[in-house]
Amino acid sequence: MRTAGWTTAIIAGGWLGTMVGYVLTFAVLTAVRSPELGPDGTVEEQASGMSTVMVFLAHTAIVGTMVGSGAVLAVGRAGLGRLTAAVVAALGPLALIATGMLLLYFRSGITLEVMLWDSAAAIAGTALGIYLGAARRRP
């Protein structure tokens, strides 16, 4: 029962932590961006290359932190093996990112470029988190 409780808490915590991190990243990016008026008087926001890179790095760090801390908890508290701990730790953040991208794609039509950047950030963050959390952790 202890293992099941910790496993559930790790998945839910990873999901919630990733959600909070992504919302904060979006809030900061929205506050920093300065919209420009277009020729017809409408507001146009242009994402610069620098903001894309900063969002990529922030998302990689968020996912890496959530997966890494979840893997440490899964090995230490839940008593899971390294491979199982890595899978459990990655479930919450990756489920959030996958469902979020699908909802945004079908709801507002985000571009393939945005989906690729977020997918790459999720993969890099997961690999970083597994390396730092489960692979280097001694049982």
Description:
By secondary structure, the protein is mainly α. It has one domain. 79% of the residues lie in helices and 3% in strands. The chain is built from four helices and two strands; from the N terminus they run αββααα. It has helices at residues 2-32, 49-76, 82-108, 112-135; strands at 36-37, 43-44. Strands 1-2 form a two-stranded antiparallel sheet. Helix 1 (2-32) packs across helix 3 (82-108) and helix 3 runs antiparallel to helix 4 (112-135). The chain is elongated, with a radius of gyration of 17 Å. The two termini are 20 Å apart.
Which keywords apply here?
single chain, 139 residues, mainly alpha, two-stranded antiparallel sheet, transmembrane helix, transmembrane, membrane
Summarize the structure.
This protein is an all-alpha fold.
Question: Regarding quaternary structure, how should these chains be classified?
Answer: single chain
Q: What sort of overall outline do the alpha carbons produce when their principal axes are compared?
A: elongated
Integer average pLDDT: 84
Percent strand equals under 5%
Radius of gyration over alpha carbons? Answer: 17 Å
The sequence of SSEs as H and E is: HEEHHH
SS element count, helices? 4
Largest sheet features: 2 strands, antiparallel
Distance between the termini: 20 Å
Number of domain units: 1
Total count of strands: 2
